[in-house]
Amino acid sequence: MEMDSQEEGFLAKILVPGGTSDIIVGTPIAILAEEQEDVAKFAQYAAADTGAPESSESRSEGQAASTSSSSGTAPGPKASRVGPAVLRLARQLNVDPASVSGTGPDGMVVKGDLLGSPPSASPLPSKPAPSTPAPAASDDAAADDHEDVPHTTIRRIIAKGLLDSKLGFPHQYATIDVELDPLLKFRKELKELGVVASVNDFVVKAVAVALRENLNMNSFWDESAGEARRSDSVDIAVAVATDGGLITPVVYGADGKKVAEINEEVKDLAARARANKLKPHEFQGGTFTISNLGMFGIKEFSAIINPYGTQGAIMAVGGGQERTVMEEDGSLGSVTVMTCQVSLDGRAFGGQEVGAFLKTFARKLENPSSLLM
């Protein structure tokens, strides 16, 4: 993944080669020099152990070029420049943050500065015994009542991608209700015949067939060309939640596969996705994404278009909900309805295309036997 430096300067030394994995958090990976003429000073520099957190010696050496003209101890940081997590760690180590030179932005003291602080660092001043009982919770305790949860690499990529999509893709939304009762009845009949298929498998098949019959919806916006590009292959990406984050394995040529085949393929892809055993081509690409939260009791939701690959739309599928309806004879009845919402790139599609697509999708799903042909 790419990482933008918060500081300006010249790259003096790469300490960890590109492609290295399992690097301990806090390990220095490169040295930046403030002046170009200082780059040569680090030509022979070598980190003692690139797998361990940064030591005070390597940090002081890395700062030599920018601080060679100064002497004495750097002024301590202001209290407002020390975060609550650092204050908590300082109390645990009994180190006064004001006696530690900060290496963060604008001289801010970070955790690595405390962990690598020399023995000469001043301890925290002892607090006098209170003459009155202390309050149950102080402001400092309230400020420290949290835990830093680091992001995984894949979650950082997902977060950046979703932000880029919302900022760069003009999202438009179209919603349709699909009656599920015919499908639920049909699934019971198939189960008696030994055919196992979930509602989501039929959704994948119905979306794929609807895309084939409305091929303009199987498109994406090509920014470099300034036009929409249509894909001939209907490849459906199915969102799968894993411990590392969301991943979208692809069912290629889904419109030409039987529902039972889609069932087996999706189960296999999801299992290997959660085990982190997918090959790159199995989760990269796709022409349309389906995200289903119905199993969590979600009625409906809005999804963000996948910014990677060749996709211009995503369908958010909710769970079946029972609704009261009036029958033709005036009596009251109930039906099971599933709400599906499509988020589409307004540059690639218009209302006519998405309307025709959703109409076909609903017709296929409400007549599930047609999906077996």
Which descriptors would you attach to this protein?
373 residues, alpha+beta, 6-stranded mixed sheet, two-stranded antiparallel ribbon
SSE order: EEHHHHHHEHHEEEEEEHHEEEH
Secondary structure tally: strands: 12
Largest sheet: 6 strands, mixed
Taking the alpha carbons of the first and last residues, their distance comes to 44 Å
Q: Beta-strand level of the residues, as a percent range?
A: 15-25%
Provide the gyration radius in Å.
Answer: 29 Å
Helix content: 25-40%
Present the secondary structure layout:
Layout lengths: L9 E5 L15 E4 L22 H7 L1 H4 L16 H10 L17 H5 L23 H5 L9 H16 L2 E9 L1 H12 L6 H15 L5 E4 L4 E4 L5 E3 L1 E3 L2 E3 L2 E2 L7 H16 L5 H4 L4 E5 L20 E14 L5 E14 L5 H16 L7
Parallel strand pairs: 6-10, 10-11
Antiparallel strand pairs: 1-2, 3-12, 4-5, 6-9, 7-8, 11-12
Write up this protein:
The chain has 373 residues and is α+β, with helices and mostly antiparallel strands. It contains eleven helices and twelve strands. The chain has helices at residues 56-62, 64-67, 84-93, 111-115, 139-143, 153-168, 181-192, 199-213, 259-274, 280-283, 351-366; strands at 10-14, 30-33, 171-179, 219-222, 227-230, 236-238, 240-242, 245-247, 250-251, 288-292, 313-326, 332-345. Strands 3-12-11-10-6-9 form a six-stranded mixed sheet. Helix 8 crosses helix 9 (259-274) and helix 8 crosses helix 11 (351-366). It is elongated, with a radius of gyration of 29 Å. Residues 50-80 have low confidence and may be disordered.
Short précis:
Helix content is 29%, strand content 19%.
